[in-house]
Amino acid sequence: MAITVEQIDLWLTVRSEHQRLEFKEAKTQYSNEKLYKYCVAIANEAGGHLVLGVTDKLPRKVVGSQAFNNPTDMAAKIFQAIGFRVDIEEVAHPDGRVVIFTIPSRPKGTAYHYGGAYLMRAGEELVPMSEDTLRKIFSEGQPSWLENIAKSDLSAQEVVQLLDTQTYFDLLNLNYPTQQEGVIARLLDEHLIEATSNGYAILNIGALLLAKNLKQFSSEVSRKAARVVVYAGESKLETKSDITGEKGYAVGFKGLVGYVMSQLPQNEVIENAIRKDVKLVPEVVIRELLANALIHQDLDLGGTSPVVEIFSNRVEISNPGEPIVPVERFIDGYQSRNEKVADIMRRFGICEEKSSGIDRVVESAEFLQLPAPDFLVSYKRTVVVIHGPREFRDMDGSDRIRACYQHCVLQWVLRKQMTNQTLRKRFGVSEGSGNKISQIITAAVEQALIKNDPNAPDSKRYARYIPIWA
């Protein structure tokens, strides 16, 4: 279907670029090599449109492009360079010529590359695909780790003995069937078990979520059990306890959260002239981050599991696998690594199948005026560090800039904009600290984390800020 002026005008209303839509001004020319790379990256991300002659910054408008005046010739060059066809259309928009490259999605189980580099987009940048992403792509169509058999040749009674089916029905607010056949039928329908010639087999996903004791299954499953390590101080020199859970993630989640909370250090605060003890980190934060770590881990990585490490001044929660969403987009972005696990855990009421969990973590940190959570990527692991209470004057520059960026993104998600005033409120400081807050904002702008809202009044006093990628 030919792209029309009306379609381009509709694209102009899009608030931000997304997986299937990329804008470039390219008023006079555009690099062939860069075009090839973008075509590869967009194809690897389910296909979409690369639009030349439209501003990629807000306010979005048509500026016209003189690039690629011979679309037929260029289409042939693209095919020769990257090995797949890209359709090119020219649209005579009233405000200028627009060139649209319609890029197909990669075939299932394969990924495209240019010059040996398998590319994808990360914000405005083109980056090599991670080993984890490529492995997922090349294994498409093959049984996933979750579909592997954890234990086979079981009777219906043995299935019920191994899995906590009572908790399964409780979490779904369903009446427990009066007959064992009803229990088995439900597990079959959920694809947590499957029928075999010799009875039933429990799939890895069934064991991982519902096992009464993960140790009763193979090491492929049992090694996924969550581990909680408590240290005596701020370093790993002295370990107080090191406990590995035994229950499946769903049936053991409440107990896991409770155990972690019981191990957190206490802080004494004064509220309404009354002293009281509070935990280092609020339960809502622990709950959301634990759910994320369990659900979004890379299950194909063997011999490793989600880990909670509790120090006297912070909590670190990590899971196997590098994130598939860039850490700087954790607040506004969402993509589930294990969709089946996420779906079931959502129906159990353990998580929400969207990015609101991280939003809630950041909101809690702001409400309690804690240091901003630190989202990190280490070797084949994703780590979240939650710091205990720290006064504004005790936060270092990186703490303040990180909090500034996260506050700006959170405001954007809420369809608002950050200002000096909102950031002062986030840090809990008075109006007299306005200059210090301005310095933090300036540093965040210089580090290309945030930018001035182009729709704001041209006044320093009324300046508003949005994320750099918005």
TrEMBL record:
The organism's place on the tree of life at top rank: Bacteria
Domain Schlafen AlbA-2: 17-129
Residue stretches in coiled coil: none
Pfam families per record: HATPase_c_4, SLFN_AlbA_2
PANTHER family, A to Z: GLPR-RELATED TRANSCRIPTIONAL REPRESSOR (PTHR30595), SCHLAFEN ALBA-2 DOMAIN-CONTAINING PROTEIN (PTHR30595:SF6)
Name of this chain's protein: Putative HTH transcriptional regulator
Source species of the chain: Simiduia aestuariiviva
